[in-house]
Amino acid sequence: MTIPTDTIPGPTPTAASRTRHLLGEYGVVLALVCLIIVISLLQPSFLALGNLMNVMSQWAPVAIMGIGMTYVMLTGGFDLSMASTYALGAVLAAAFGQTAPPLLAFAGAILITALVGTVNGLIVTELRVNPFIATLGSSLIIAGITLLLTGNKPIQVSFDPFTVLGRGELLGVPFSALLMVALFVLAGLILAYTRYGHNVYAAGGNREAARLSGIRTDWVIASTYTIAGVTAGIAGSITASKLSSAQAGLSGSLVFDVLTVVIVGGTALTGGKGSIWRTAVGVGILATLQNGFNLLDIDPYYQNIIKGVIIIAALASFDWSRFSRIRRPGAD
């Protein structure tokens, strides 16, 4: 007699395998909690409300760009042009803000950066250029355009309402922080509960299988670069509003901070694995570290070394957990 395979019970998870699973899923949260405890013990002023609000305001642009990068990386893509697009968005917002109402200035900047992201997406999907190479090239082009627009000089905005987005508060909470939280919630809900979100995961998990199942994978992948462009434009607008100015060299090493928060959060470089809440935790880890470094007066050179170690450790941890699952197919 043949026994149906679906009636055969699978291996019962052991306590060790369950622990590994929980650490794999929520270890990043545990790391953040431990980090907060350690830094608050070393420097109690870390938990002061004013300091926490300041940290949220400072990291809002990186966090918002992290949302766009998460979408791109979930499809197995990569966007090295986000920092240049961010600088372009800030410059455009400041330029438009000299004559236009703030909302129109920000909207115009975001619209153009969304177009830049769309072009990136089309280069990747239609021209079949590797995302790393495509966005590296576009990053240089965007940076050059931004320099041409500004003449490598800052653009100043003297219109006071322009600063509301970057400096304004509601009940003591910065508008930029409120916008960051709202965008995280919206982006998370889209990924978790909409068909589009499921298609993003499918395109990153197995592009060919997703295509054969009827998903327009090229459209899905290209759209994530548009989202990245939108988030870069929003982040640039926040920074221009906060500084009342913008210039071509504004971005600096920002792209590495964006990549760090996404990778540390657990989004896979190979696509198909990750989530918005993980990126939010990644932001929390890097922001806590950076603020803790400053409060403890740690040399900036050591800060960069520690950041590099964290990135390598995060990637090594992901690869180790994946290898562990392959070696123990019934463990989880």
UniProtKB/TrEMBL annotation:
Where does the UniProt entry say this protein principally localizes? membrane
Name of this chain's protein? ABC transporter permease
Q: Which domain of life is it from?
A: Bacteria
Where found? Cell membrane
Q: Which Pfam families match?
A: BPD_transp_2
Question: Mind telling me which InterPro entries this protein's record contains?
Answer: ABC_transp_permease, Flag_MotA_CS
**Does S-adenosyl-L-methionine count among this protein's keywords?**
no
- Asked if the Swiss-Prot or TrEMBL record annotates the protein with the keyword Membrane, the reply is yes
Listed transmembrane segments: 26-50, 71-97, 103-125, 132-151, 171-193, 219-238, 250-269, 276-295, 301-318
Q: Name one GO cellular component term.
A: plasma membrane
Q: Which UniProt keywords apply?
A: Cell inner membrane, Cell membrane, Membrane, Transmembrane, Transmembrane helix, Transport
